[in-house]
Amino acid sequence: MPDSEQSPSKKERILDAAEELFALHGYDGVTLRQIAQQAEVDVALASYHFGKKRDVFEATFLRRAQIINDLRLKSLQQMQATQGDSLSVEDIVTAFLKPIQALQMNANPGWQNYCALVAYINSSAVWGKELMHRNFDPLVNRYMTALRQALPNATPEKLHWCYHYLSGALTLTMANTGRIDRLSEGRCHSDDFQTAYDLMIPFVTQGMLAVCGD
Fold first, then answer.
1. How far is CA 73 from each of CA 102, 152, 163, 197, rounded to the nearest angstrom?
2. CA distance 152 to 111
3. CATH at 140
């Protein structure tokens, strides 16, 4: 089956549909046929372009992963260029979180779906170890190096636990579940990303300093 002029747009529609459905229902709650129906293409076309459901899932995850890595790397490099050797823990946490905040506040709903998908994968014992490690950990290690320089007296164990807590808070924020809305009786909203990240940065920073500081 040769690619038609419409194939690229159809491939994007398939990935967009998969991104939304996997974010909402997880891997096991979605079929290839459902993805094809939402994308308004024949299921055979989805199979032709991507193969099995697992291949669609991984292609959906990979599509935006490098964009996030590039944004985070640029954010860290800009902070390092500005602050030099005096880079603080708050600078590093800010550089790590602000790109995700901007993506979640993006008008394109695809980024919100993708953030929810990453949250699902990161909290999954099946997918987290494999996909997160392969696609995000090399960049995370750049941030861990910066944290070791900012917290020279911290043990590697404590630094990794601190990143674990940061990742957990970020994952729940990316998931945008609406739970805080009910828990706070409407005082807080999980889609208030401005507040969520503005508070997360000092919260995580002070926690790291308390655990790993002098």
1. 15, 22, 17, 18
2. 36
3. 1.10.357.10
Radius of gyration of the chain (CA): 19
Domain range spanning residue 208? 64-212
Question: pLDDT-derived band of residue 86, with 50, 70 and 90 as boundaries?
Answer: confident
Instruction: Report the candidate in 97, 105, 103 with the shortest Cα–Cα distance to residue 76.
Output: 97
One-letter amino acid at 63 equals: R
Q: At residue 78, what is the residue type?
A: Q
In a domain, 47, yes or no: no
- This prediction has a pTM of 0.91
For 85, the token pair is 């050797």
Token digits of residue 86 = 């005096």
The reply to whether 143 falls in a domain is yes
* Of the candidate ranges 30-34, 45-49, 91-95, 187-191, the one whose mean pLDDT is the lowest: 45-49
Q: How many folded domains does the chain comprise?
A: 1
Identity of the amino acid at 57: F
